[in-house]
Amino acid sequence: MKKITLLTIVALLSFGANAQSLLPTKYGIKVGLNIANVTSTPNEGVKNIETTPLLGVAGGFYMEIALNDKWYINPELLYVQKGASFNYDYKHKWDSISLNNVNNLDEYATTNSLKLAYVELNPTISYKASDKLALNFGPSVSFLISEDYTFTEKIIGDVPPLNSVEPTPGTYEAEDLDVGLNLGLSYYITESFLVDAKVNTGFLKVGTVNRITSIEEHGNEKKEYNFELNNRAIVLSFAYLF
Q1: How many CB atoms within 10 Å of residue 114?
Q2: Is the torsion defined by CA of 191, 59, 136, 139 positive or negative?
Q3: Residue 91, exposed/middle/buried by CB under 10 A (0-12, 13-18, 19+)?
Q4: Contact between 176 and 56 (Cβ < 8 Å)
Q5: Spans of the chain below 70 pLDDT
Q6: What is the C-alpha separation between 81 and 95, in angstroms, rounded?
Q7: What φ, ψ does residue 15 adopt, rounded to 5°?
Q8: Is residue 141 a contact partner of residue 77, using CB atoms and an 8 Å limit?
Q9: Partners of 172 in the β-ladder
Q10: 3-state secondary structure 52-108
Q11: Contact 146, 116 (CB under 8 A)
Q12: pTM
């Protein structure tokens, strides 16, 4: 159903544009490098994560539909890799009633890797400022097709007693849809070969990282570390038009 919807949108854009312009519609391919990252919103009282960008690929099909000699619609249907590496520290509280009230608060440092893959539709609007340079903007709709979340952690400071309770593993809950905005420019090396650069900003939450730091037991309040993630990316691409 998703594939049918995407193809229908592209076909309608092409049909409507050709009815208004005598300039030919061009078809092409686009390949490039995606410098991806995430922004995060933590729950109250939690220190935010520290992120490092991930490099991924971006590529797929590209169209150039002329409305007139200045304005174009350039739909893209792309495979895009996104995500980020990020770190955060947390404190884990375990029950100490049976341990003679010894220190029951341990601190951990985590290292996390999140790799996401999307099929992305970009109905880009393009304004040709000159024969060589075009300014681009437009919405972005991304459908998640795969995810890979991994993490490691180590205790900071003293090793806890053998009969202490270890923290539960962290989890990642993904969302299937992301909607965002693309802003960028294209430089035409020739009429058929161009270099494209854009910034993508996601508006929707794409997932939540969750960590339980203490359980509701013996009067203790259940506490969690939550981080809601949004996609960000810089995409550098080459496109060839037939």
Answers
A1: 24
A2: positive
A3: middle
A4: no
A5: 1-21, 94-103, 158-165, 214-222
A6: 42
A7: -65, -45
A8: no
A9: 209
A10: ECEEEEEEEEEEEEECCCCEEEEEEEEEEEEEEEEEEEEEEECCCHHHCCCCCEEEE
A11: yes
A12: 0.83
pLDDT tens digits, one per residue of 196-236: 999 999 999 999 999 887 665 555 566 788 999 999 999 99
Residue with tokens 């965002």: 180
**Identity of the amino acid at 79:** Y
Instruction: Write phi, then psi, for 11 (nearest 5 degrees).
Output: -65, -40
- The tokens describing 66, both together, are 């002329």
Report helix, strand and coil shares of the chain as percent, to nearest 5.
10, 65, 25
Q: Which domains does the chain have, with CATH numbers?
A: 2-241 (2.40.160.20)
Contact present, 29 and 62 (Cβ < 8 Å) = yes
Q: Which residue has the tokens 């400071």?
A: 157
